[in-house]
DNA sequence: TTGAAAGCGCTAACAA
DNA sequence: TTGTTAGCGCTTTCAA
């Protein structure tokens, strides 16, 4: 690999001059500039980013922490972040944390040592404390850690309320809820939204709420149990689409007809909801937009560290499909 | 951030000594070592990886190129690569190439400037030529660029043959094929495998083969057309699961019963095949293993650049589910 | 308009 | 067993 010195030598200038034309800053005679560019061309010279990073103390890299990229919610998010990141000549680092606090902290430290310029974090376990010694900007998704950390969120509670109210509006009388794992950030809000709507119904009791883990397999099992124990349930609001698909399959195995006997609504709006039979009614999050807004805000924070906290909340949308049906 | 000099000063030694205890190499008195470690502790010192990289000419980072992480085949692959990568204290960079040669080349160059230590590439457009000036090791997935580049693949042709023969074995008489896009590396092999089995059948003609783009939406459309035009088709081998799901939905919309009237088999073995109704029979690739083997081999190549090309081929497995059924 | 030189933080010869 | 020093490749002050 040619270095800046090779270029300087060939063009008969100092490295400072080469650096100036490279970065387009400072005065440089158009004649010499031409010579330098020719030398660059001839040597196929590409500046060494590591050396630049060392000098600047910044690496032009940003990292995204997600629990597990295999969960189909996250690829779209990751894609959005990478697209924006890329457009601004940053490099994109993906970290799967498995919701493990230890992994998160390890990554945070390892990447700080690499002068990573910023972090986009989907996490339920990270605290303000953990970020205290981190000097680069951080933005959280899905949840506000604190009023001091920037974030992009959706109104989970409102969405959950909408989902539950929708089930009521189409005539469901006994509505159950399969919630996310207690460790997950948004679980609580979605549960609250559900409770907002049904808590004071005469029929309601806590047996209508069961806790899942946001995955398909487990949801299939617990839904079978729930539906077997309570055959009066005619509507389920499920805290995410993946689990909602589990409910669909559970009902199928119990020969419960959807939507005739049971209406199911999910949350997220991931593609899988289009591929099931019946297709899945859901509360759609603007996933790509969440990711790209987060990335944009992060980059802005990197450029203007003096800027204060930015918190944005995006809207969710009810998408009616075939897993719910208005009763006659 | 404290530097090695701060530590040296506090421990009353030279930076060389600090470096020695940091890297556990060279002789250092256990007394001084203790002093140094105390200073490190007290200052919360963490070595600057960028400076290390500059010196070493290696960044302890590896990159994975995939067409699009939103395609559910790739998250599992990415996960595998990250897991292995991580275990060996490397950092994982994810690049979505959209099958664009330009993007690939841009990434290759940008990351080389960052001293990335190796590349794992899923691509149909990269050539040996493109890699000529890349000094770090490269391993390709899905396809062998050339006998000079290491690779981890599966036997696509054999798998396709198995899929098609399986349809025959359960009694299908007219078997169609929905192939991948011509640009994709493995399309051709899967098509060949299909042809190996049916090409010489009396009924066979090229109308039984249509070209998809590996995505769900498009497959849904072309399958509707195919099934409408040829109502004698009683089996379809689809080049990947995502498109196979499209076929399932297309059949549903045409009121064609699966598996009674039509058997469908996919390729890949991604999770979505478990969530459809009916669930999807498929040729399963060992996706995680492909990713982790690739990462392991790459790391080995990084450590031993003198090593020659390593090419591995893994086995695929037929998974019978509900979208195919033995005719009585 | 250009160059000399210091320095980003680290490692590894070489010397002591 | 430890320290001195050069240097990885770049940018930027400062001086000319």
UniProtKB/TrEMBL annotation, chains A, B:
Q: Which UniProt keywords apply?
A: DNA-binding, Repressor, Transcription, Transcription regulation
Asked whether the UniProt record includes Transcription regulation among its keywords, one would answer yes
Q: Which residues form the HTH lacI-type domain?
A: 2-56
Give the Pfam families listed for this entry.
LacI, Peripla_BP_3
Q: Which InterPro entries match?
A: HTH_LacI, LacI/GalR-like_sensor, Lambda_DNA-bd_dom_sf, Peripla_BP_I
Source domain of life is: Bacteria
Q: Name one GO molecular function term.
A: DNA-binding transcription factor activity
Protein's recorded name: Catabolite control protein A
* Source species of the chain: Virgibacillus pantothenticus
């Amino acid at each position: 690999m040619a270095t800046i010195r090779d270029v300087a030598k060939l063009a008969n200038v100092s490295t400072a001059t080469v650096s100036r034309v490279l970065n387009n800053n400072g005065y440089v005679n158009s004649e010499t500039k031409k010579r330098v560019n020719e030398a660059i061309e001839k040597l196929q010279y590409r500046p060494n980013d590591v050396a630049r990073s060392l000098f600047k103390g910044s690496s032009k890299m940003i990292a995204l922490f997600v629990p597990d990229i295999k969960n189909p919610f996250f690829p779209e998010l990751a894609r959005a972040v990478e697209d924006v990141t890329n457009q601004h000549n940053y490099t994109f680092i993906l970290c799967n944390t498995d919701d493990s606090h230890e992994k998160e902290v390890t990554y945070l430290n390892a990447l700080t040592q690499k002068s990573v310029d910023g972090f986009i974090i989907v996490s339920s376990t990270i605290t303000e404390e953990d970020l205290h010694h981190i000097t680069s900007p951080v933005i959280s998704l899905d949840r506000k850690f604190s009023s001091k950390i920037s974030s992009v969120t959706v109104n989970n509670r409102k969405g959950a309320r909408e989902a539950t109210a929708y089930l009521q509006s189409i005539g469901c009388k006994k509505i159950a809820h399969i919630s996310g794992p207690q460790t997950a950030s948004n679980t609580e809000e979605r549960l609250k939204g559900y409770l907002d709507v049904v808590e004071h119904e005469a029929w309601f009791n806590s047996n209508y709420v069961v806790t899942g883990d946001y995955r398909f397999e487990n949801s299939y099992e617990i839904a079978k149990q729930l539906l077997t124990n309570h055959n009066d349930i005619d509507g389920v609001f499920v805290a995410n689409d993946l689990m909602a698909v589990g409910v669909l399959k559970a009902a199928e195995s119990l020969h419960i007809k959807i939507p005739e006997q049971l209406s199911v609504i999910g949350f997220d709006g991931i593609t899988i909801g289009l591929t099931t039979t019946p297709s899945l009614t859901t509360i759609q999050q603007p996933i790509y937009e969440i990711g790209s807004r987060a990335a944009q805000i992060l980059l802005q924070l990197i450029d203007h560290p003096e800027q204060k906290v930015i918190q944005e909340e995006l809207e969710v949308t009810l998408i009616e499909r075939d897993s719910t049906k208005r009763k006659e």
